[in-house]
Amino acid sequence: MALAPAAPPVFSLRPTNFTKSRRCCRCSSTISRTDDSSSSPPTNTSSTLRPAVILPGLGNNTTDYQKLTLILKEYGVPTVVAKVSRIDWFRNAAGLLDPNYWRGTLRPRPVLDWYLRRVNEAVNEAKELAQDANISLVGHSAGGWLARVYLQEFKSSDISLLLTLGTPHLPPPKGVSGVIDQTRGLLDYVKQHCAKAVYTPELRYVCIAGRYQQGARLIGANNSGGSAAMVDINQPVADIAVVNGTTTLTPAAATLRARFIGQGYKQVCGQADVWGDGVVPEISAHLEGALNISLDGVYHSPVGSDDTTRPWYGSPAIVEQWIHHLVN
User: Fold this and answer.
1) Per residue in 29-57, pLDDT tens?
2) What GO molecular functions are on record for this protein (predicted)?
3) pLDDT in tens, 109-166
4) How far is it, in rounded angstroms, from Cα 171 to Cα 174?
5) Where are the alpha helices (DSSP H) in the chain?
């Protein structure tokens, strides 16, 4: 019987021009280096790079990713964004008519067929640009787990990379007081029926999480140990390699903002006082079997972000941290 490959580690990275120290929990060795790479993307005119298809997140539309599309093209990556408008998301209200919604056992199809069709159209458009190359899927937020549904349902053999940005991959834990599954069972379906994450030459899963804000509980003491905050949600966690560098992040004080964000985190992973990108907890954005990466100071959405004080996953200096997965 063939053995599954060992799960890749989790890396925690900061933007460029920093000194970082990598500690692997499997050994006591430490490696330090300074990264002085430029944040300016090189112009790459190669036509052999895999095209990328961007899958918008819940509530986002195609134009939210216009700047990211331009950045990727500067790196030489032809890019197509699935055509989604904000009003399209109201189509999901059809799920209210499904008894499975009220039972918490909702399935992606047919309620999300409209989205999957848009993704398929974008993939077909990217294939015309591919020139016999494979295609990368870049899923932001819910677009990441919807990409997994697409891979399961459409069986495309042309996809060689799924890179997710702030995606809540894991269903919320059962039996936690005050936690309601906002997906009404969709993430349970993905966990049970979609293919497991892999990191192989044929198909690579890369899951990127942001560490923008630590949440806080409404009442009681909070964890204050930064990356040491753990959530027991009965999910297996791969061996973790942590990058410990000088960072501008500090554990959140029990402010109103931290408590508000913490309640959002709790609905996703069952615990409030954890790090996340302001919307999705770090631990929920990683998958066993994938290459899991955490980026300090990264906000969840292009809406409400900027490239300096509140960069999101698609800001130029942040894209620089993960672009190599698309161009290699």
Assistant:
1) 222 222 333 344 554 444 468 999 999 99
2) hydrolase activity, acting on ester bonds
3) 888 899 999 999 999 999 988 777 899 999 999 999 999 999 999 987 889 999 999 9
4) 9
5) 66-74, 99-103, 113-130, 142-154, 186-193, 256-269, 316-322, 324-327
Contacts of 223 (CB under 8 A, 6+ apart): 229, 251, 273, 274
Helix-helix angle 186-193:142-154, to 10 degrees? 50
For 193, other C-beta atoms within 10 Å of its C-beta total 13
Kind of pairing between the strands at 18-24 and 241-245: antiparallel
Reduced to 3 states (helix: H, G, I; strand: E, B; else coil), residue 32 is strand
E strand intervals along the chain: 10-13, 18-24, 30-35, 52-55, 79-81, 135-140, 159-165, 204-211, 213-214, 241-245, 275-276, 291-296
Judged against a pLDDT cut of 80, whether residue 229 lies above it is answered with: no
Round to whole Å and give the CA distance between 297 and 33.
20
- Report pTM: 0.77
Most confident region among 88-102, 210-224, 266-280 by mean pLDDT: 266-280
The amino acid occupying position 89 is: W
SS3 184: coil
The CA angle 295-300-306, to the nearest 5 degrees, is 90
Which 8-state DSSP code applies to residue 202? S
Contact between 312 and 278 (Cβ < 8 Å): no
Show Cβ contacts of residue 9 under 8 Å, excluding neighbours closer than 6 positions.
Answer: 24, 238, 239, 240, 241, 291, 292
Backbone angles phi, psi at 216, to 5 degrees: -140, 150
Burial grade of 302 (CB within 10 A; 0-12, 13-18, 19 or more): buried
Nearest Cα residue to 211 out of 199, 229, 235, 197: 229
Task: Kindly give the interhelix angle for 113-130 and 142-154, rounded to the nearest 10 degrees.
Answer: 80
Burial of 97 (0-12, 13-18, 19+ CB in 10 A): exposed
